[in-house]
């Protein structure tokens, strides 16, 4: 099964192509260019260099978020267009699942963190079970690092771009309990998106191309301001 995976949840866009679980090619673009300016070029590069025309793909996989609102919208709209053009199914995966699954089986807790700005991170907790299958142990959340560390009582592996912003705080708060992987794993890889997506597509599951949307977890800045305006405009009620 040939699957092309796309991640635009962070500043670093990534595209990866796999065939039966083997990585054929991958492109990481951690450069100051918007996803709209580099994503299609990266996809075209992978297709040409692997000599795998789009008609031979079995499907697409896309990271739905959480992450950059603008980046996610670009990724979703791009894969929708490609899915319509090729009539291939699309699988959606969580960017937090992607980061967690890039950590090899370990007895420690795994905590992907993506910088959500506004003093928060997008995060969830994961652990490998006795069969070395990765299981999510909490909801996807946007929360302050101060709240994240409150209940951590064991060694935990932090992964993701949230480390760049809050790594020093995590070390200071958790001391030897906080572990960090190779920095290259802090970026969601398109090949991992493709691998997780292929597992979904093998089950015969796929997204409705017409209706699927990114997973934001929290409201956008525009939505927050709109809700604040609505609350301000409402008259006060006495009880």
**Spans where pLDDT lies below 50 across 5 or more residues:** none
Shape: globular
Proportion in helices: 25-40%
CATH class of the largest domain: Alpha Beta
Characterize the structure shown.
- The chain has a five-stranded mixed beta sheet, with helices on both faces.
- It starts with a strand and ends in a 6-residue tail after the last helix.
- It is built from seven helices and twelve strands.
- The chain has two domains: 2-94 and 188-220, ATPase, nucleotide binding domain (Nucleotidyltransferase, domain 5), CATH 3.30.420; 103-186, ATPase, nucleotide binding domain (Nucleotidyltransferase, domain 5, 2-Layer Sandwich).
- The protein has helices at residues 35-49, 69-86, 95-101, 145-148, 162-174, 190-202, 221-233, and strands at 2-7, 13-19, 22-29, 59-65, 90-94, 109-117, 120-123, 126-128, 134-136, 141-143, 156-159, 178-179.
- The chain is an alpha/beta fold and 239 residues long.
- Helix 1 (35-49) crosses helix 2 (69-86).
List keywords for this structure.
Nucleotidyltransferase, domain 5; 239 residues; 35% helix; 26% strand; five-stranded mixed beta sheet
Topology, please?
Layout: E1 2-7, E2 13-19, E3 22-29, H1 35-49, E4 59-65, H2 69-86, E5 90-94, H3 95-101, E6 109-117, E7 120-123, E8 126-128, E9 134-136, E10 141-143, H4 145-148, E11 156-159, H5 162-174, E12 178-179, H6 190-202, H7 221-233
Parallel strand pairs: 1-4, 4-5, 6-11, 11-12
Antiparallel strand pairs: 1-2, 2-3, 6-7, 7-10, 8-9
Q: Summed up, what is this model?
A:
This protein is of the alpha/beta class and 239 residues long. The chain has seven helices and twelve strands.
